């Protein structure tokens, strides 16, 4: 979503001011079969436009002939003016190497929707990080199957949509959710949203729905991982942020973290300790997604972290 200038300052749709210098910064994400001189060709192309490379990370799956992934963040004066020519030049170089690529102006601020159920800790973390400017993204809306987050969310100027969900009304509820989301957001974050999304819903946002699972996947998938962990007598609990697919809790993992527990801790204490992990793991995953640092590769991810 392109930013707009308000009294000379670049702002996002939510009215968040865009830091100076961002207007001429872009990210280039490239993938394909690894071949010699790919990097020099791509960076040579950028240098012809006077680009200054701020950050560059690459990964090859093999020493030779495997798959290649590259993320370059760069600054170039008058980016918007030279963009069409730059895209033409990149198309030429990419085609010569059979590469896939996408160019993302950083000022094209991504629009996120947050979906939440009863638990508020993950939602609050995202709202706090957004307010503090940690996320250069817009929160276009919050959708919940519970009414009680509305006042806090709307006090921040963010629309709140309460859409109850029961087993009998699930499909109709998803119709309403998709009507609100389609064309209005770039990605969706499930901040402890406790309803399984239908394949129809997931297909609308391929690898653009991020869920925080309150367990260390692949262990303890499903709705009650802390109870299952307690019954198993684990010594570590964790949280997992992953892209959502139609198969429950089986999508590409973006980030995980763990903490130690022992026999003294009941399910309530596991939940309390786990909630701190959920907040930080989800925020990290959202931040990396917003910065185009996550590339899905099969059923895993390549994360070019900062
Ligand atoms: N298609 C997907 N939808 C969702 C995923 C996913 O990976 N794929 N993750 C869940 C989040 N989650 C665990 O992290 C989870 C949430 C809810 C359930 C569940 O069994 N829900 C029941 C209803 C429970 C209730 O009403 O309280 C259900 O939907 O029938 C399991 C796992 C979010 N969605």
Protein model, in words:
With 306 residues, this protein is α/β, with parallel strands linked by helices. The protein folds into 2 domains: 19-105, 2-Layer Sandwich (Alpha-Beta Plaits); 110-303, Rossmann fold, CATH 3.40.50.170. Helix content is 31%, strand content 29%. It has helices at residues 38-48, 79-97, 121-131, 150-154, 170-181, 199-204, 225-232, 267-290; strands at residues 4-6, 9-11, 25-33, 52-60, 67-75, 100-105, 110-116, 137-144, 160-162, 187-190, 209-213, 236-243, 253-260, 294-297, 300-303. Strands 9-8-7-10-11-12-13 form a 7-stranded mixed β-sheet. The radius of gyration is 21 Å and the shape is globular. The ligand Nc1nc2c(c(=O)[nH]1)N[C@@H](CN(C=O)c1ccc(C(=O)N[C@@H](CCC(=O)O)C(=O)O)cc1)CN2 binds next to β11. Ligand LMY7XDAE binds at residues 190, 193-197, 202, 211, 213, 222-223, 244, 246, 248-249, 251.
CATH level-3 fold name of the largest domain: Rossmann fold
Most strands sheet? 7 strands, mixed
Helical content (DSSP H or I, runs of 4+): 25-40%
**Biggest sheet strand line-up:** 9-8-7-10-11-12-13
Q: What is the CATH class of the largest domain?
A: Alpha Beta
Distance between the termini: 23 Å
Judged by helices, strands and strand pairing, the structural class is: alpha/beta
Active site: 249
Function: Catalyzes the hydrolysis of 10-formyltetrahydrofolate (formyl-FH4) to formate and tetrahydrofolate (FH4).
Catalytic activity: (6R)-10-formyltetrahydrofolate + H2O = (6S)-5,6,7,8-tetrahydrofolate + formate + H(+)
Enzyme class: hydrolase
